[in-house]
Amino acid sequence: MADTITCVDDLQRLARRRVPKIFYDYVDSGSWTESTYRANETDLGSLRFRQRVGCNVEAIRTASTLLGHACSLPLALAPTGLAGMVHADGEILAARAAARFGVPFTLSTVSICSIEDVAEQVAQPFWFQLYMMKDRDFIVRLIERARDAGCSALVLTLDLPIQGQRHKDVRNGLSVPPKLNVRNLSTMLSRPAWCARMLGTRRRTFGNIVGHAKGVSDTFAFAEWVSRQFDRSVTWDDVRWIKRHWGGRLIVKGILDADDARLAVAAGADAIVVSNHGGRQLDGAPSSISALPAIAAAVGRQTEVLMDGGIRSGQDVLRALAWGAHGVMIGRAFLYGLGALGEAGVTRTLELIQKELESTMALCGITDVADVGRDAIVSPAHGAAPAWPEPVGRRVGESNLPVLAS
Ligand SMILES: Cc1cc2nc3c(=O)[nH]c(=O)nc-3n(C[C@H](O)[C@H](O)[C@H](O)COP(=O)(O)O)c2cc1C
């Protein structure tokens, strides 16, 4: 089956047929009018490559480093809540696929499989994503759990002081586990393989929270807890506080403005993720790719700049690198693979993206991903992106951080 899948769109179509509508819609949606969700993809697609010939592209190298760790591609799996509802044990399967492929996996605070579950099932260290909650004792314990599990970086997401509204989720009555009303029951029963796998796992609630946060012993108490817990009062002082408690590599996610990027660096970020949460938070915000050049120009020499939002192919990876990113994160691209074919689907997503990246590099006359620069792109069609200054004394894909043993 995986061999007849030729692109991420194929995996998306298959996932739509295999995942109950309530959870498929949760993935394939953005906030309000979804204008930022759409812009992430269309703005990326508007960047045209500079085709080069006669360059000897016999050997192509996509290997790189992220946060000092060697990886087969400059790409990490983004934190995505509820991946364990897209496919039973989803976070474990995705983490395993990422580890085998040689790229980092990021576990969300609101995952179904817990930090301990993933650490027990997957040999490679992973990154842990943190949302700032009002219950600071819970945050301290969560950080300790991530450290005890051997997580190699903490990803602090700042673009969610309140939750953006996705109309489809409201209409579908999204909850975990799903409410067993007639409509949800019929959409789930129309996906019998999904149901059978779900019945076969014990992981069906928020593994990092239920049983760990004060007063949250079941999923119903969880819903009430979450609505009270997202902390709107977060400032850069809290980021410094997190950095101190964590003590390891800190990635600040959800940056869309050059001034915020500078503040993140000043607060101790070892890397930032230029991100609008995949168009799920501030509808009407710029696409990530259009915000990237100004941010990379502001802080790209002091910190690693990752970017996510709309990456669906190896061509998109090359566009992001050319526009100033050290690496990218993918959200929906791997979730579609997961929903379609479980672990094999995530592996297929990664294989497709790597193959597409290799071919695109070859046709642009680039043999090493570290050599991708602004000149891989001819002038952008949308004109929104400011010029990315040519790197001085350092190649775009090269990190300032020392390479670590993995
Ligand atoms: C279904 C879904 C759940 C997400 N959950 C989280 C989350 O728990 N924490 C977080 O920091 N970002 C979350 N995100 C945002 C992703 O980390 C990432 O920024 C986004 O998916 C990138 O856009 P893309 O899906 O177009 O690749 C989520 C995204 C999706 C699609």
TrEMBL record:
SUPFAM superfamilies xrefs:
FMN-linked oxidoreductases
Which segments constitute the FMN hydroxy acid dehydrogenase domain?
1-382
UniProt record similarity statement: Belongs to the FMN-dependent alpha-hydroxy acid dehydrogenase family.
Which Gene3D superfamilies is this protein grouped with? Aldolase class I
* Organism, as annotated: Paraburkholderia xenovorans (strain LB400)
State its Enzyme Commission number(s). 1.1.2.3
- Tell me if Transport is a UniProt keyword of this record: no
Q: What's the protein name?
A: L-lactate dehydrogenase (Cytochrome)
Which keywords label this protein? Flavoprotein, FMN, Oxidoreductase
Give the positions the UniProt entry annotates as the active site: 277 (proton acceptor)
- InterPro entries the record matches: Aldolase_TIM, Alpha-hydoxy_acid_DH_FMN, FMN-dep_DH, FMN_HAD, FMN_hydac_DH_AS
Q: Which residues bind FMN?
A: 79-81, 108, 129, 157, 253, 275, 308-312, 331-332
State if Secreted is listed as a keyword.
no
List residues binding glyoxylate: 26, 131, 166, 277, 280
Cellular component terms (Gene Ontology) = plasma membrane
GO MF, one annotated term: L-lactate dehydrogenase (cytochrome) activity
Q: Where are the transmembrane segments?
A: none
